[in-house]
Amino acid sequence: MKINKKNIIIYVCLGLILAVFIILLFFKFNMAKNLKIGNNKSSQDMVNDILNIKSYETVIEVDVKSNKNQNKYLIKQRYNGDNDNCQEVLEPNNIKGVKITKSNGELKLENSKLNLVSIFENYEYLSENDLDLSTFIKDYKENSGSRCTEKQDEVLMETISNNNLDVKKVLYIDKQKGKITKLEIEDTNKKTAVYILYREVNVNS
Fold first, then answer.
1. Which of 143, 151, 152, 158 has the fewest Cβ atoms surrounding its Cβ within 10 A?
2. How many degrees, rounded to 5, is the angle at CA 108 between CA 166 and CA 124?
């Protein structure tokens, strides 16, 4: 049987087209896998990542609302275990530079020029350490009522404070990025509410 050169060229071209088609399908499949919500992580994986954080640095915007007034703060936090836990006020200017360090259950304030009593009055949740991400993680692990729910674009971790069983705390995680976005703290009567926005969270190894 005589093979026509023209037919050979056609078969080769068809083979190449088929090969290219298979390669494209392969890459498309792998891209689809990589584009899953949360960088290929499930919601439970994200929760586990948060619960396994051992040390971090972050800058947070804090909005404290009560029946009488509303206060806003910008705070830098560093946590490297119970022996290295520090919060520094960046804003407002009248209390800028105030450092609160907690070590082995002791609370240390650094700024002798300020009225410490008024600071405690304005920083009820800060003195109780409820603004710390590490405190939320501890509360979530220790409370049997802690739970995780999902919205369309967010994962919500909900627990109550060990300092006060009437205080509810909810941590929000962006499902697309797998990053913490905010923390809400409020008592059951909603007399006081604290809203924390995380500008950044740098988790240390």
1. 152
2. 25
